[in-house]
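Protocol step 4 of 5: obtain the predicted structure for the target chain.
Materials: sequence only (see below). No template structures provided, no constraints applied. The aim of this step is simply to have a reference model before the mutagenesis design in step 5. Sequence pasted as it appears in the construct record:
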Amino acid sequence: TLLVFPFLLIVGTLVTYASPGLWTLFITTALLKALTYSLNEPALEMLYVPTSEPIKFKAKAWIDVVGARSAKAAGSAINDFVQRSPYLRTNLPQYGNVPALLVSIILLAVSAHVGSRFESLVEDGHIVGEQKPNSHLYRSGGDHRGSYELITRLASSRSEDDDDAKSIFGAIARENNR
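Step 4 output (structure tokens):
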């Protein structure tokens, strides 16, 4: 579903290039706008399924504020560039589709990558932004690796010599407090 909209965007751009005209632009724009609301936006919302609430909130905020505004600014910059060039302005039907086609192809590639990443996250049952249980016991690098595993093993075994267990727990606690 994620690849349908970018593919139809490429088709719409090629149709507009092959048959430039006001009615072609009007019909293509109307169809693509309808597809945006009926197909693309629900598909994008589905991508938030394997994410935690804080990550979902941050991602949506970034996309709405930075992503959308940046895309509008890039579109305005292209429009200003075309308006300042008399050659491009008179040959707009020929060259006006080039940026749209490039963006459509990039969107198709990104959608394919994001879709495959989404499928692998859903298959693994991984939730983006969730920590491993007891992740505060994991440390990166050094002698701290394996502390959690050692504590788990010691807690699950019934050691008859409690003094050994206490000394090991004490050493681990001292090591983690450094």
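Step 4 remarks: Helices lie at 4-18, 22-46, 53-84, 86-90, 92-95, 97-124, 147-156, 162-176. The mean pLDDT is 77.
Proceed to step 5.
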